Amino acid sequence: MSTSTRIRLTIAFCLSSAALLFAADARAQFYLGAEGGWTSLPDQTITVPGLFSTNLKFNAGFNAGGRLGYEWGPWRFEEEYSYRQNNVPGNFSLFGLPITGISGNRHTNSIMTNVLYDFTLGYPITPHIGVGIGAVNIHDGLKLPLIGQFINDSTWQFGYQAIAGIRYNLSPALALDLDYRYLATTQPTFRILNTNLLRYRSDYNTNNFVASLIYRFAPPPPPVPAAAPARRRRPRLRSSWSSSTGIAPTSRRLGWTSCGRPRMPIRRGARSASRLPATRISPVRLATTSGSR
Q: How far apart are CA 292 and CA 248, in angstroms?
């Protein structure tokens, strides 16, 4: 598999992973950040196969970029773009011979997919660690006196980085990140004098101190739960007791007794008759009346 194919697959993986992560949870809190800082590029080995190998020094440089991501609990998933540049010194020695009047730099454009974890301690400052993979475009440019443009070539390489830092929450919407980021790639190969006759291999591994200002977008409101159906309230029965008659309590409102039986309606006439005094029939009087007949 060629290097360009691996780079295309890496970029496709990063973009598809970002799409899946961003669509994973509609309740995730998205954020946008701008970053910048200091970049150190240690001495890099330059090897021309079959001819020579030497070390090339670079001055301290800078980095700048931005990132878009979202927070999901203690996890953060983000896409990061970063530009890094380190200039070459004005002079160096080759085979013991000093060469002066040199100008040039090595700069990169990187697209990384990062995963970070925040350790929540209950304080405004929280430490975090993370890793990232992606694609890095490395460009070498070098001008020599009396020759002019000696190197002017670029190549895409697989990149990886490790992240460690702290976050200070300025407010619910703003945060400040201070990170150390180690970014490295697979070995790039560059052409000399823009020809395919001479090439050299090199390394790329940087130490970066990055400060980022993060703005969190407000999360969407939680979905409104469906209203529960109203429960029908059972009517309360009012019962009355007749202490004089000893009649069981009945409901004046619904016409039901406390035992659950319907109360028979009482007509007004019958109710009046029940109020008349009871007539007592004597057996002696009944016998006299029947004998006279």
A: 47
Q: Which run of H or E residues covers position 230?
A: none
61 Cβ partners below 8 Å, 6+ apart? Answer: 38, 39, 40, 41, 84, 85, 86, 87, 105
The burial of 286, by beta-carbon neighbours within 10 Å (0-12 exposed, 13-18 middle, 19 or more buried), is given as exposed
CB 154 within 8 A of CB 138: yes
- Name all domains of the chain by residue range, CATH numbers in brackets: 3-24+33-216 (2.40.160.20)
Lowest-confidence range among 51-65, 122-136, 170-184, 247-261? 247-261
Tokens 């019958």 found at: 270
3-state helix, strand, coil in the chain (%, to 5): 10, 50, 35
φ/ψ region of 22 (left if φ > 0, alpha if ψ in -120 to 50, else beta) reads alpha
CA–CA dist 111, 11 (Å, integer): 8
The answer to whether residues 40 and 207 touch, using CB atoms and an 8 Å cutoff, is: yes
Which pLDDT does position 130 carry in this prediction?
Answer: 98
pLDDT (mean) for 17-42: 76
Strand partners, 63: 37, 84
Residue-level pLDDT at 124? 85
| CA dihedral sign of residues 109, 111, 117, 119 | positive
Amino acid making up residue 157:
Q
Cβ atoms of residues 263 and 253 within 8 Å: no
Q: For residue range 63-80, what is the model confidence (pLDDT) as tens digits? A: 999 999 999 999 999 999
Give the residue among 211, 209, 214 at the shortest CA–CA distance from 181: 209
Work out the pLDDT band at 287, boundaries 50, 70, 90.
very low
214's tokens: 């993060």
